[in-house]
Sequence to fold (342 residues):
Amino acid sequence: MMAAATPPDQAARTGASRTSASRTDADAPTAGASVSGNAGAPRVNPLQRLWLREIGMERLWLRQEPAAPSRPAAAQAQQPASAPAAGAGPAAAPAAPAALAGAPAAAKASPAAAPAAAPAAAVRSGPPPRPPARTREASPDPAPAPTPAEVAERVRDASLEELSAQVQACTACGLCHGRRHAVFGHGGQPTRWMVIGEAPGEQEDRQGLPFVGRSGQLLDAMLASVGMSRERDVFIANVIKCRPPGNRNPKPEEIAACSPYLMRQIALLKPERILVVGRFAAQTLLGTDATIGNLRGRIHRFKDESGREIPVVVSYHPAYLLRSPSEKARAWQDLRLACSQL
Fold:
């Protein structure tokens, strides 16, 4: 039979039992401990924190995990809850590292859910693609421009009205593409004088009449000074029937294309005198390349289609006289020379 324990031994066992119980209680988390929403570390009471500090585990146990990257809602719904239930007891302590280890796995799983989102628009590098070539219906080739010989053949037997219609429809040179009106000529009949200029200007192209604007006003004044009028006995025409772009000088091929019209006009009108104003008109009618200074001051002879000779007087163009008023005195002399031959 064992002897009964003495009171001191009983007290010692009682203290050891309390110490062991306190350690056991401190070792297990309380039923109210829960997992933090951000870090996943359990909450502990002050007694448990003191015990963790004594064994050097406070910082390791209570260390907070960085927040895991956000995941799509579908991935969160498939991920099982890693937080331990309340009152799990001592077995809940190893669950915290498992929850921490689940965060990287979830982060790795998040790219797998990316295809569920709408695909991004493709970015193209380099020059833009060329639009498809437009197919145009084959247009018929334009008719070739008639040669000066063909124009002369067409107008050989034309009346004045028919000749005017042919001038309006002429395509013998490129000037027809930029004209508003072809300027056939205008004046009185029967014709005593015929005044021939070089080419229509801007105002002539707009109105379809020769010598309008300031140069036309000056010409009318010059004719009136010798008793002549375009409304009564003077017919005014140009070598070129269409306006050259920018009022440039006529080209030789343009003069050659229009010359048959002028020759037929002279043959039909049968003027008594011809007053030629400007260098290009004088050179075309007289068939020479002499300057206007060498051609003016004397009487020239022009032979029409019928062989009849017509006196020709050369003078300055009214547009030149507007730029050089000092030459008006010589132009007056040319008018008096033309009148002396009547």
Remarks:
- The mean pLDDT is 75.
